[in-house]
Amino acid sequence: MRARTRLERLLLWRFSPEEQEEIVRDLAELAEGRGPLARRIYYLTELAKYPLRDFADRWTNTPPRGQRGHGRSGMDGVMRDLRYALRGLARSTGFTSMAIAILAISMGGAAAIVSVVDGVLLRPLPIHEPERLHSVWLIDDASDRARMTPGNVLDVRGLEGAFEGVAAFGSQTASLSIDGEPRFLRGSRVTPGYFSTLGVEPVIGRGCTEEEGEIGGPSVVVLSHALWMEMFGGDPAAVRESIELDGAFFDVVGVVPPGVYPTHATVSAELPFTTSSQDFFVPLRYGEGVWDNRRSHVLGAIARLAPGVTLETATDRLDALSDRLQSEGHPNSHERLMLSSFTEEVVGDIRFGLWTLLATVALVLAIAVVNVGSLFVLRADDRRDVFTIRAALGASHGSLLRHMVTESALVVVSASIGAILVAHALLGVMKALVPYQVPRLTDVSIDATALAVTILVGLAVTTLFALAPLRRLRDAGGGETLVRTRTVGGRGRRRLHSMVVGLQATLCVVVLVAAGLLSRSYSALRAVDTGFTAMETWTMSVNTDAATLRDIVDGVRALPGVEAAALAYDHPLQRNWGDGFAIEGVARGPNDPAMGGSLRAFGDGYFETVGIPVVEGRVPDALDMQGPVGYAVVNEALAETFLTDRPVIGTRLIVPSAARMTGGDGIFEVVGVVRDVSFLGPAEAPSPAFYLPLSHFPANASRLLVRPERAGVDVVGGVRAVVSRVAPGTGVQQARRLGDILSDMLARPRFNAMLVVTFGGVGLLLCALGVYGLMSRAVATRRREIGVQMALGADQGRLARSILFDAFAPMAVGGLSGVAIAFAFSGLIQSLLFGVSPADPVAFLGSAAFLITIGLLGAMAPAFRAVSIDPASALREG
Amino acid sequence: MGGVLGGFEHKVLLAMMRLGGSAYSVPIVRELEERTGDAVAPAAVYVTLRRLERRGLLVSRMSPPAPGKGGRERRVFDVTPEGVALLQAARRDLDSLWDGVEALESS
Question: Where are the beta strands (DSSP E) in A257-382?
Fold first, then answer.
């Protein structure tokens, strides 16, 4: 017999060696009697027909089961494995749906959070050389960071050689009508060099020019990428269009790419930049006088280091500038200029919250994988007999292995599809929760790599668990396994169960403690008395002269559904400038601290409209305002800080800035004390503030506050109608409900708390399911043992207690280790907490107790099942 | 047992009957080519024999080495009684169907 050629082996690989020999010999015999070439051709063409005929024959004539010849097709095998796996999974829908749901939720959650961490923290900012960009602040003796004054912006810009560009910006909101629906837009006023300093190129058109930054220059607007897509569908011809903002027309000159745009720098370091969701940019315009101002901290500023200039050099130059300004004796000469990294400004604040979330979701993923893994182990255990029989009937280990891998792969593939959906949904929820409080979040999309890595981890670990029983099966040996005794659950396995329960309990308590701390912190924030009660009150700004404004207020008060209306310089959740005062008749010693506080100018009806309660005395009414005497109102903090040594009511304050403004003596008599208001939101402690009437402190008060009788009254529509009647052509801007502004301030803590609580809940649920599954299994394997005990007259109650204790013991140990671990690390999230200690006993004990309760509930059903075992039938089964 | 005979299966079985039993694949291929005048693929004969054997219409055995001709064992096939019965039934069906057809054709 000659050896097969490679071609023969290749063409006849589906046939056995005997068949191959037969075929080759037949063909050789049939080819005889032809010329050498013809013989060769005949041989090869006929040989090639064998695999084809063979394939066609198998395809059209699938033989009855059990009569197959050898040489199964590979595709057949895969399809059969899939069919078996599907059938097996379909038979246990409970197991299947639970495993898929657990994996989908945890993998989807992990992928979403990883995508957010990557998109917000890890990716470099989408600006040119972000490391060269810094923000510029003023810092005073108390090391309180403050925004820049217009004069100081010019000072920094005048520094030669240090910076390639210096730009300033302030916030601007506007309403825009899209298809007849008014939309609230966030934008900024920016100096001409803003985009080049920031390092951003417009995608079409250009930024603002110097000429457009002058008073009386053309009205132009640069659109954000999102607004451009929404209004113009991305049409480049948008740069020849104009849009209507607050009733005035602006020519569109450019569109900037999505990215990070510093806009509204606040006085406090709390939310230094609101960087996302910028809808538009308009030129910042100040007259000559304003650019000299070194008093009003109204501008945010960024500066880009000149090429080759280090941060140290630039800081030295700024220090020298600060020294010079100090020697020149400007009003804010005690303040110094400082730089801080722009990247830190953008992401520094949120970094910690996101890492906490990531840690949480990683823990939940760990719980889930342990859980699903143990589900697989249990299931394989349950079907051990089936596998043993299959092995005894000649199924190879390879085929059993393939079966199990196929099954777990099916679960992970379905779970992956679910995970993609969960990840997208979760990201959507996150974007809705914190639309602009987390910088760059709006630009985040689910990262394919993050998703793939998460799914691979899930697949690897699940498969590992799924295969664990197979190893045991092999170790045991088929025959022995078949006749194994069913009496005892096996000490080793019970130890494994306890470890799995304990591990889950540990992980779960850590997550629950974090959830408890953050949610208690959030409810503490919610419970803070912000000092004013009228959450339904609307604030809006109307830019017109004082007399017209008074007419508008009168008109608004007459509107149906309006309970109160007032004018003011600002609304209660807005911090403005601080100002100094002196007490009449009290000379200030050289070492006495300067007296001052937030100066707030109000019109009549203000306190009633925003719901600030009067604690002592009264607030000036309309009649008072017409008189010659100026009456002031102070808050409790000011009274307690500066007026402790005298009766507050009747104290006369001398306010120098009022004297300068009106040319009078600047004296105000305190007639009332009002509740403290947290101007910067609940997280900030109230600070001293004094209120002066607009009648005697004529600040340019353009803020209109309107309190409706009930929620749902169309306040804005009513005001617009009044304004268009009284002052046609005047826009109503920045209309917002005070309750919404407050809610925005709580968005980040709410975001942290909600997500961690959600994951904590998922973790807890998983834990309960895990305990339930493992205890069910334990009871099932001990069925006969329990039956014997009951036949011997064991007390049912004691039996149930012993089963519950089997669940309780590992949970208690695991839970306590979780408490210890959480205690060791809870200090890490202190910066996220408000009004709650990181060692808060409620959060710690509550989490442990909660977990153990839920776990025991999970063990309850199996325990009940155990005591209702019929001894007779349990014994018969043995 | 039995069932319907495919066209090529029918031909293979008849060729085997003509060869008088205990035939291996090469003579069957030749017989078919001689009688039909068409080229026959040995592969087709091979899988058909395999299939007919699976259906119980043929039975195979290894024959002792034939004298001369290299002298190797060959797999030879015999038609089983079931195969013979199926051929007869097929012939009956065809005959009864043919009955009267020639007369029509010649008219």
Answer: 280-283, 300-305, 336-341
